[in-house]
């Protein structure tokens, strides 16, 4: 397991609690890792923004406690919604934690990567299909919490990436 972070100075403070990272990136690796996420991560690091990104974390059935703590210890979470984001239980667990942290004043910034925000919000298309598959397999309350987290996150004003780069100005 390898974790990658870039450390730098940041002058922004959103809470009184000390935070370990300025930004936590949540994304579906197979959709975005080699292009968009790599460029976003590098741009944030070049600005001196201490950013957490996983680098081929070992995936298990459930998200690790350590990763949940990383989300909690971040000032900002950037969620990059892509076509296969909802098919990953790992991504959905991250999202639920991010939305929980938003209620504790963490800034959450969604990016809709070649996907319409209404598809995420209304859980249609690939998002609806993925959630239905999760419901068939899991048969528990977890999927409902994921649905609520998707709805809430998709209602946050964010950026829509569609065949061009999006520049995020965080600081």
UniProtKB/TrEMBL annotation:
Domain TIR: 19-171
Keywords, comma-separated and alphabetical: NAD
Residue ranges the record marks as coiled coil: none
GO BP annotation list: signal transduction
SUPFAM superfamilies referenced in this protein's UniProt entry, alphabetically: Toll/Interleukin receptor TIR domain
Keyword Endoplasmic reticulum: no
Matches recorded under InterPro entries: TIR_dom (IPR000157), Toll_tir_struct_dom_sf (IPR035897)
Protein name: TIR domain-containing protein
Species: Castanea mollissima
Highest classification ranks of the organism: Eukaryota, Viridiplantae, Streptophyta, Embryophyta, Tracheophyta
């Amino acid at each position: 397991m390898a974790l990658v972070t870039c450390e730098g100075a940041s002058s922004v403070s959103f809470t009184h609690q000390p935070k370990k990272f300025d930004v936590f990136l949540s994304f579906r690796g197979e959709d975005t890792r080699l292009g968009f996420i790599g460029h976003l991560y590098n741009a944030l690091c070049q600005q001196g923004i201490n950013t957490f990104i996983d680098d081929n974390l070992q995936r298990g059935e459930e998200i690790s406690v350590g990763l949940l703590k990383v989300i909690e210890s971040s000032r900002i979470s950037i969620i990059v919604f892509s076509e296969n984001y909802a098919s990953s239980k790992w991504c959905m667990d991250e999202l639920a934690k991010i939305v929980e942290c938003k209620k504790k004043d963490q800034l959450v910034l969604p990016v809709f990567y070649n996907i319409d925000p209404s598809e995420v919000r209304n859980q249609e298309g690939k998002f609806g299909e993925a959630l239905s598959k999760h419901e068939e397999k899991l048969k528990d309350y977890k999927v409902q919490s994921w649905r609520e987290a998707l709805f809430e996150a998709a209602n946050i004003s964010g950026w829509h990436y569609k065949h061009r780069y999006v520049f995020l100005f965080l600081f």
